[in-house]
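Aim 2 progress update. The chain analyzed this quarter is reproduced below.
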Amino acid sequence: MTRVVHTRADLEAARAGRFGGTAVVMTMGALHDGHLALIHAARQAAKTVVVTIFVNPLQFGPGEDFERYPRTLDEDVEQCEALDVDVVFAPSVDEVYPGGPPAVTVDPGPMGELLEGASRPGHFGGMLTVVLKLLNLTAPDLAFFGQKDAQQLAMIRRMALDFNLPVEIVGVRTVREPDGLALSSRNRYLSDPQRQTALALSRALAEGAIQPTAAAVRTAARAVLDEAARAEPPLVLDYLALVDPGNFHEVPDDYTGNAILALAAKVGTTRLIDNTPLTITGPTITGEAK
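Predicted structure tokens:
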């Protein structure tokens, strides 16, 4: 039976006496199949599974959707029970940040200034701060995060390495709707016409991923996004980037090896992100040397 707790003291009591490995899945609630895939992976890997549900104000900037972010705790708990989650930790803001906003936060470093960090100043500092706090509170052996938030996953892995955190960070592949749209709690904001425009994100990634060179990847993906920008309603591109998975810097046109094609865009007032890992092989050489 799933135990729901709301305080740090109750969380510690709920964890007491549980052995055999603990896995945590951190969410902001409004659970969808992407979250459930993380929980399922955690359930397969550990004896004890803790799911955290907390809408973290520190990672929302001015004008973002903190107030209207969906909060569906009762439904979320039902889904956790169906997947045999042991503990749901659903704290209040005061429980996570006693005494108000923290005076000491995690500095996300240079990677935190790129892409999502440039578009959403302060986001990664707030995200890393709450992840570190929740890792300390849940004390897991394993922590599961979705690859859909690729830059977030890379930064959490780097924080675990740099701070010598005794936890393994596990990435789980992106879960998509049958039409290709990456699952997100924000998808529910989209009207039917907006959703049709938003499908350009996954199409752009698919077109880019089959190209042999970095230059061709960018050209193919941008062509799809440019067409969507002329749709009604239009897609408004924030960024399209082809980056090194280790540091999220743009790769040069002659790059070969593993990369991540990442993008962010708005459709109406809803901001969506998506990405795909790919391997750039370089131009194919045909014929034989004489």
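The longest strand covers residues 257-267. The beta strands are 3-5, 22-27, 48-53, 87-89, 142-146, 168-172, 235-243, 257-267, 270-280. These observations will guide the mutagenesis experiments scheduled for the next reporting period.
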